[in-house]
Amino acid sequence: PPLRWLDPPDGPAIELLDQTRLPATEAVLTCRDVDSLVEAIRRLAVRGAPMLGVAGAYGVALAACRGDDVAAAAELIAAARPTAVNLGWGAYRALAAYQAEDLSPVRSRPAAALATARQIAEQDAAASAAMAEYGLTLVPAGARILTHCNTGALVSAGEGTAFAIAAAAHRAGRLARLWVDETRPLLQGARLTAYEARRAGLPYSVLADAAAAALMAAGQVDLVLVGADRIAADGSVANKIGTYALAVLAAHHAVPFVVAAPVSTI
What we know:
This protein is an alpha/beta fold. The protein has 9 helices and 10 strands. Strand 1 and strand 2 (about 15) form a beta hairpin. The longest helix has 28 residues, at about 110-135. It is elongated, with a radius of gyration of 19 Å.
């Protein structure tokens, strides 16, 4: 899993699958304090909007269990990445649980923060399953789906966002091909989405981002599926660089363009 809470005798910690070393090496990072978690977030060892929300909440729980300044820790975590709105959302939800005036007499404040982090992870897994179910209704038989960046189990407590829909289509026998954009700046598509597609047994091909236009012009794309870093109240979507170009191309070639994201990304 991309993130696990550890509670060993020598104190709590957060264990992360280091995404910067995939697919060549499946290495684990152990964060025993907020500073190390923030560094992991900044260098993209843990990433993806929903998973950052989970990580943010667990980071606040870690600070609470250590006896740190929990409010300051929440601020530090929320500022670690400027893009995914889920990061601050998760951190501040755990902080609110920690600071709640109506705290249960049988639950300590650190336990309340940790329970909220676990609840956020459970809700994210449920949201992933719901997105897969709803999204599958948009996928035609024999679909050739183009996806951008990485939106699978590495970014979620479940199967992901856009990738979860592609995986559901594969299980339903509707996926003919998953086109995987290589994606800047760290080749998240070529490294991570291809890694997840291979592990899940999906038929996939990696393509240079610049090849998407020719692929659509040739009629080789039936659906574009992407995730989101944040969605504004008016429906505007912010996502990995290159998403806007895909949206313009899809509009020009009359290819359906679908954004999959949990409510926490709004």
